[in-house]
Records
---
Amino acid sequence: MIGVKVVTRMTVIIKVNPINPEREKIKIAAEAILKGGIVVFPTETVYGLGADALNPEAVRKVFIAKNRPMDNPIIVHIAKKSQLFELAKKVPKWVERAIDILWPGPVTFVLEKKKIVPDEVTAGLPTVAIRMPAHPVALALIEESKPIAAPSANLSGKPSPTTAKHVIEDMYGRVDVIIDAGDTFFGVESTVIDATEDPPVILRPGPMTVEELQKITGKEFKIHPAALAKGSVKVAKSPGMKYRHYAPNAKLILIEGAYEEMLRKIKEVFLRLKREGKKVALLLTEESKEFLGVREDVINLGTRKNLYSVAKNLFKSLRLLDKLGYEAGIVESFELKGIGLAIMNRLRKAASEIIYA
Ligand code: TXA
Ligand code: MG
């Protein structure tokens, strides 16, 4: 936000056990939330930067610390089902049934909001996004404080943080507390579902896949065109859709196409950039690295045998590109199904150029 001064804060870093969080440590962070402070905490997806969801002043601090545009609403994190009904009105029956299976977990429902939810959280929308995170630390923190409004704990536009180290890079001196509980589990943010529509609409693909959601709920989901992140979006149902996201400083080139053609194209572009004297890296799975027979300037994305490994490494790899001083990175693409859809959504948004092989 232009013209808004970021307050320099004394940041306290608290290391906690991710499986069995020490209550007395959680209470220090909870105290900060209850006093209107802002706290970074781990979830099973990525780290979040949280404030008391019912305290507009505190929520405003979150936007300022992240440099986030005020018109991009944030998710409210809860620890028990009753909190859902305190915040949302008209929870459809199918959602009630679904959350019994899906929560705690990486699924966010957009629902009609009740009056008590401040406009700062929802950016003035009549709806509120809610999820119950499946991380012992997040749940303990909410239990010891209040429902917590939290976007991902990165500076706006940067890759989401999947480890406390990333958070410290972005947020040290901007927040009151950082809870360090090691690496997050999934590495990409929750699946966001607009449940005010019937059929419901996937606004952002995430760890809980469309295929799984359909099986669990018996519903046919629609996928919002913006969730595919193809081309520019004119009408953004989720305000977050219209902003460039996850971008490293290095130029990120995404190569799409059938597998072998894609790999040949990657090699061609890589050699061309090298000839031009650019410091360029390849972001590849083990299989693709093997296929291309490259040894140097490769950042490992994981394995195609389990694309959840790629999701987990994704944001870390984008940050690594900058840390290693590369001017450009060339990244392979994945099929738009299962967790591949979430990976491609993030890659297409992060890319400064997409080349079709
Ligand atoms: O996994 C996650 O969802 C992480 C962790 C911290 O929980 N949070 C996260 O928050 O990714 P954030 O703010 O980076 O992304 C929230 C997304 C944005 O795309 C936003 O536009 C959308 O959810 N959203 C929030 N409230 C909404 C609403 N009322 N209607 C439509 N979209 C909404
Ligand atoms: Mg985010």
---
Amino acid sequence: MNHPGILYVVATPIGNLKDISQRAIEVLQSVNCIAAEDTRHSKHLLKRLAITVPLISLHEHNEKERANQLIKRLCHGESMALISDAGTPLISDPGYILVKEVKNAGIQVVPIPGPCAAIAALSVAGLPTDRFIFEGFLPSKAKLRKERLEGLQFESRTLIFYEAPHRILASLQAIREVFGSDRQITLARELTKVFETIRSGKIEEIIDWVERDPDQQRGEIIVLVEGVQVIPTIKNSVSSDKILKILLEILPVTQAVEIAFKVTDKKKNELYKRALQLK
Ligand code: SAM
């Protein structure tokens, strides 16, 4: 039996073709076939790189079936590359099923890293990068979108969303509705392309700008949202003054302070001073 080939997962540019890596070019030249999300789209890239390796389509509707065919070829010693229309395959793009099945078959999968819109946007957003979460696309239906956002409203890590241009305004409005208008956000549009635009501000300001400038509702867009700064708990959402006033109507100062200390996030001596003022 032949020694099995290798599946290379190759990142390609997200706009500017100069962003292809030297290693990506060498791998694309060397493999027996290239599985691509949209072969017509990828033909242009390969033509520019003077690569004539045959393309085979692999998209969300044929991935399972294609994976079986490609595994057979890999088992016969062929090597192949997986690319998507732009950026890193599998990141909101096809390839997960193929990679999983190829690995399950005991065949080597090698990454050829390169552009990824989410990471490019994060690197310039000016939002915390030590911890972040990638949420891909929000659901297109308003109700599901809101539910997804509600599940994320107490997320403290920086949030990254991909968005389609015709939904950007609705998504920003939903983010404001669920997260409030105080968060810092960054819109990264058309990265690495002629009309690259990166703007940061409070949600309110960004919505206003997108509403007034229809150009901001065109092209490819990423939304990055600051994580929640203070997670509301029963303790920090209770007004200590309010609770003290109620308790002082029925209890002596020391007991009122004791209870207020248990249900608020205030220090005991602060509550005591305040109770004396309110009494
Ligand atoms: N696999 C790609 C990657 O590595 O980033 C993402 C593919 S996903 C189908 C396409 C989405 O990625 C777009 O709707 C947009 O949200 C984002 N995107 C891709 N290229 C972009 C660019 N040049 N500028 C801003 N966003 C981009």
---
Amino acid sequence: MNFKRFRRLRSAPWVREMFQETRLTAADLIQGVFVADAKLAAEPGMGLPGTERYRVDQLEGLMERVQKAGIPCVALFPCNDPTVRTEGAEEAWNPDGLLARSIREIRRAAPDVGIMTDVALDLYTNHGHDGVVDPSSGDVLNDETVELLVKQSLAQVEMGAHALALSDMMDGRVLAIREALEEAGHINTLLISHSAKTASSLYAYYRKTVSFDATPGGLDKRSYQISPANGDEAIREYVADIEEGADATIVKPAIMNLDLMARMKALQETPLIAFQVSGEYMMLRAMDRDQPLVEKSPMWESLISCKRAGASAIITYGALDVAENLL
Ligand code: PBG
């Protein structure tokens, strides 16, 4: 008999439940958290749950919710005041800066929650590029930047970060940072490289929220971020990052790069993290902007698609909202 009744397996809730291939749980989610000092925190953000800028004294309440929801990890993004941003990004290793104070507060309030920090200079430079800019050519200098990323990484570990997410896209940084961490005895710090980070228009809301991109039309990061047109190039970088010592890798924007997740997963077993970026989050929540998240929402569909493609975890600003309302 050639005719097949596929609908048999979808015919009742019990059978659909029994054969569901992937599941989304709170343990899969990483809450993206913007932190700021009083002045910036008071300014309106993206206007969606999870995208507000938290003051350090508000983190305790947030972390209570994170723990209660069963979310294992938070990813921190400090919205540094423009006055502390410099050409050389010195604020990136300030042991009493906004990031350091936030990490200390989170470790105090929720000692069992993982803290992921962003390694890249963009939140600390006055131009918003992820690295050091050559004043004559305007180029983002690779090797000079890697030296500073090593300094930033060691400082973040000293501040108390558990996992470093390298979002800068410089060459050779995974190896350089891994060696420096080993040398300093930080053997248990997770290194998570953004292996496939495409030069995307979907970062615009993030850049507005961390408030550094005053460039009309947006900063051009195409000399270090991968073109959305190139999949093989992303895979080459992914393989190299793992060889250099990355424990896990990040793909972003998530829904634009589901094919890359599936390809990576087929190549190696290293855990993959999808990053549902600010622009995706805004798009996905457009349908329920003013209402609570509902079952079968675009958010759920997007997150479960990441899992289907091979992601073990997903960074999203909506983690708490999803965990509290959908799971
Ligand atoms: C930069 C960085 C970016 C994001 C995270 N880290 C943006 C950029 O490359 O300019 C984007 C995250 C988002 O849009 O939610 N190191």
---
Amino acid sequence: MKKTLLYPITFGLVMLCSLPGCSKQDQARAPGPQAETTTRWTIGMSQCNLGEPWRVQMNQDIRMAAEEHPELRVIFKDSQNDSLKQRAQIEEFTSAGVDLIIVSPKEAAPLTPPVAEAFDKGIPVIVLDRRVLGDRYTCFIGADNKRIGKAAGEWIVKRLGGQGNLVELKGLMTSTPGQDRHSGFREGIRGSGLEIIFEADMKWLEPEARKEMESALARFDSIDLVYAHNDPGAHGAYLAALATGREKGIVFVGIDALSQEGRIYVRQGILEASFEYPTGGREAIRAALDILNGKPVDKEITLPSRVFTQANISEGGEWIQ
Ligand code: FRU
């Protein structure tokens, strides 16, 4: 789609909205006659799921940033935690000829080919939060999950004085944040007397985390701390412990620190710490505008992160170095 022509934009949107995956909600965001006069670029955004508050927040951050730019029109698609569906959505965006794609992929391997195909066809692709494999995309935006995992490990070593029994509830291990939050954490606790007595892949999902924690509680009488790769996971573990009356003897640590989720858990004393994982939505729109305006962008944009604890939450947390 040529940036300066209006009719291909309209054509592309008509095509997009005639695609099987294009819901009523998507159609509602297609430009009306008014928008056609101002919209210059169409961005296709494929979100891997909207089942968790963090992803709803990411879309909201993108929407709010894009609304400041009438020249942008964002078409959102939700792949409902299904990699095949997400693959098809990216292929649809590519064949419709959107000007740019933003994707927050569910898993690395299955989403690599459609991203590479779009990129090879000249459509810029911004990969957000979870990575794909290789380097056939325009730009990756996300916080450093290895560093966050390592900081969590170091915080836990300090908190427990280097001794204790841990449960690790991992994010989906076919997604890169799960892999990095795991390896970084193991690096952070290396050399300490901490022992991982139970670990499981809870796939980023609170109900899965709760189920896994029920097994851990049934098997082990002594659990000192749960490190979960996200706050929904830590909360699910807390609920399992609460149901057996063991929540007071266990420290819960999570990642995400959304103001309406993890930070509230910290304030309530449910979690002792939550490590921030910014959504990158606003930064994605900034990068998209640069790319569309022909300005150079870094291939890798790393976002900063903070740790929130009961001691520092009223001061806005502490930045991770
Ligand atoms: C939401 C989520 C977040 C997590 C991120 C990792 O789907 O699980 O909780 O930080 O994805 O990609």
